[in-house]
């Protein structure tokens, strides 16, 4: 059985209201020690909070929840206090003096919800993403996960797999022969599942949405890369100089365009170089390879091959650069010419890398689990041995269990719940 924990779950004071959570076997007794008689479960009541010496600490709205029908799956109490620093400090201090309570660690309330079956691992990942969301597209995608959209789909797949497994195991149990041919309908049903999993795996990945689409500005030295970065972000984040090779390491700026998260990166000029500049050039090459979108500011003939490259003819305000080559967009960081058009094109390409409306984006861990289940089921095509079929189905179910956190994820739980703030 867990011990009882408490923490401030709302934002840092001062605020209009401060929400303090208590969860665990002693939650009700501890709250009663402060507030006297508690209201019935799932009812709210205004109570005076008093210390052990009888001093009035605050007047708060108190809500009681009985486990397992609570957010954490345990007995839970919420104290909605006034949000001043002094009020929060004195109430937390009073709780800290209760011998059967301790302060919660970051993410511990959500971890208990996971361990008590109130949410699965995919929903917990969605909640972590929601807490870190900075754009509306990130918020919408995180809410789909946190709301259990993927969880419900996995439950449906698991139910179908369980039926297939039962049919395969029954064929083995009721036949005495060493080798039993599997029901061909099992393989056919499994292949239908493979098709559904393929469709999910073909969706946009979560990383560009969560971390931002990586837009790399690259080209030879003194091509106007830093000036372009500065005019896009609206501040002098990169050093601008007429001397070639001024930027010796990459500069990254996080920003959002029309709700699309981007990581805009200025790189060292690409040329033959040694020493410190050579290190920067090597990093520039690696960033070009990793880029989701490449803005190339050099000669088109020298441009690296890239599936999402935009050729940018910079410094179009200069007399000798008035005409842009075919297939290039003329821009000027001085006059602003072409900047709006460039950003529209970047946003359009970036949107294609993000999930569509109402579509769940899978992170690397989730995709790996789905891919493992898909590969196990694909092995059933052309297989007639019932023992092999049953084993493949068991393996696919195990992959789904890893996806929802029912098995084989202990090593990553600390890292996941460590992303949460204190009190969540």
TrEMBL record:
One of the protein's GO biological processes: tRNA wobble uridine modification
Record's GO cellular component terms: cytoplasm
Cofactor: K(+)
Keyword GTP-binding found: yes
Location of this chain's protein in the cell: Cytoplasm
Molecular function in Gene Ontology: GTP binding; GTPase activity; metal ion binding
Binding site for Mg(2+): 226, 247
Residues annotated as domain G: 215-299
Binding site for GTP: 222-227, 241-247, 266-269
Catalytic activity, EC: 3.6.-.-
UniProtKB keywords: Cytoplasm, GTP-binding, Hydrolase, Magnesium, Metal-binding, Nucleotide-binding, Potassium, tRNA processing
EC class of the enzyme, as a word: hydrolase
One Pfam family cited in the UniProt record for this chain: TrmE_N
Xref: InterPro entries: G_TrmE, GTP-bd, GTP-bd_TrmE_N, GTPase_MnmE, MnmE_dom2, MnmE_helical, P-loop_NTPase, Small_GTP-bd
Ranges for domain MnmE helical: 121-421
Bound cofactor: record note: Binds 1 potassium ion per subunit.
Sequence positions that bind (6S)-5-formyl-5,6,7,8-tetrahydrofolate: 21, 78, 118, 424
PANTHER family: TRNA MODIFICATION GTPASE GTPBP3, TRNA MODIFICATION GTPASE GTPBP3, MITOCHONDRIAL
Subunit description: Homodimer. Heterotetramer of two MnmE and two MnmG subunits.
Protein family (similarity comment): Belongs to the TRAFAC class TrmE-Era-EngA-EngB-Septin-like GTPase superfamily. TrmE GTPase family.
Functional summary from the UniProt entry: Exhibits a very high intrinsic GTPase hydrolysis rate. Involved in the addition of a carboxymethylaminomethyl (cmnm) group at the wobble position (U34) of certain tRNAs, forming tRNA-cmnm(5)s(2)U34.
Name this polypeptide is given: tRNA modification GTPase MnmE
